[in-house]
Specification:
Elements (H helix, E strand, L loop, with lengths): L1 H43 L3 H11 L3 H14 L3 H10 L1 H4 L3 H13 L4 H12 L7 H8 L16 H14 L3 H10 L3 H5 L3 H25 L4 H47 L6
Length: 276
């Protein structure tokens, strides 16, 4: 009888322990959820200092603290601090699909810390779990892709126009633009679609050329006024050639940044509108 009683008591004690463990786990989950809800509330209310203080006081575990500080600095667009904490909590951070997607959207349109951006998207190319992140990485590295290999049909419908526009810009050759302006001043600018600027450059070069010709014809090539006109005309002609080269390079970068911006807006709107 005593043995039976002991067995019954043992079973009851095991049940009690299981129940206690269950309630402790549930209470921890509730507390954790309450903390997350409060963090979300502080972030939405833009209580920056209060949010930082709450995170530092509520999370003493180093990994959790670093992870939350990475999210905090990402939310307030503090690039260097975000990168510092995300490196310390990378394993934990990349398991947060929302934070990873949000960070990718942010980095895609940010023109700061270029090297860090490249490293981030190299890491994200390996990430197969977060929807859209692989595609954002592909878009980021389009700059190193031959234009003929870019197929806009591989991208979402709302981004195809931006991808095609970048592709057309990437096909433009700065050296060709410079050569065209050397043959006909301003033609290189028209080559990249800047017709008004190209016509203005053509007109101004024509004015300088006509003025120089008239000066030489009337006063002679050695006259000081003729020499000044030759120098000014040559400088303006050279600046038109160089300007065509530079504008073509800028035109390509401008369209690439526009693509980054459009892609970031698309993925943040469709997949990652909120960090918390």
């Amino acid at each position: 009888m005593k043995t039976i009683k002991l067995l019954i008591q043992l079973r009851m004690s095991k049940k009690s322990i299981s129940l206690i463990f269950f309630f402790v786990t549930i209470s921890k989950l509730i507390v954790s959820q309450d903390k997350q809800d409060f963090i979300k509330h502080l972030f939405k209310e833009k209580q920056k200092i209060e949010l930082l203080q709450f995170i530092q006081q509520s999370y003493l575990n180093n990994d959790s603290l670093d992870y939350l500080l990475a999210k905090y600095n990402l939310g307030y667009q503090q690039d260097s601090s975000f990168l510092f904490f995300v490196q310390k909590s990378k394993i934990l951070f990349v398991t947060d699909t929302i934070a990873t997607g949000y960070a990718s959207c942010y980095f895609l349109k940010s023109d700061q810390l270029e090297q860090d951006r490249k490293e981030w998207f190299r890491e994200m190319q390996k990430n197969k779990k977060v929807e859209g992140v692989n595609r954002m990485s592909d878009i980021f590295f389009l700059n190193g892709t031959k234009p003929n290999l870019i197929h806009e049909s591989n991208y979402p419908n709302l981004l195809q126009a931006s991808v095609n526009q970048y592709k057309q810009a990437a096909l433009k050759n700065p050296i060709k633009a410079a050569c065209l302006s050397a043959i006909v001043p301003g033609l290189g600018k028209m080559y990249i679609g800047k017709y008004r600027i190209g016509l203005n450059a053509m007109f101004m070069n024509g004015v300088f050329a006509a003025q120089t010709y008239e000066s030489i014809h009337k006063l002679g090539v050695k006259h000081p006024l003729s020499i000044v006109n030759i120098i000014l005309s040559s400088l303006f002609y050279a600046s038109t050639i160089y300007g065509s080269y530079r504008d073509t390079e800028y035109y390509k970068k401008e369209n690439l940044q526009q693509l980054y911006h459009d892609a970031s807006n698309y993925y943040s709107t469709v997949y990652y509108p909120d960090l918390y």
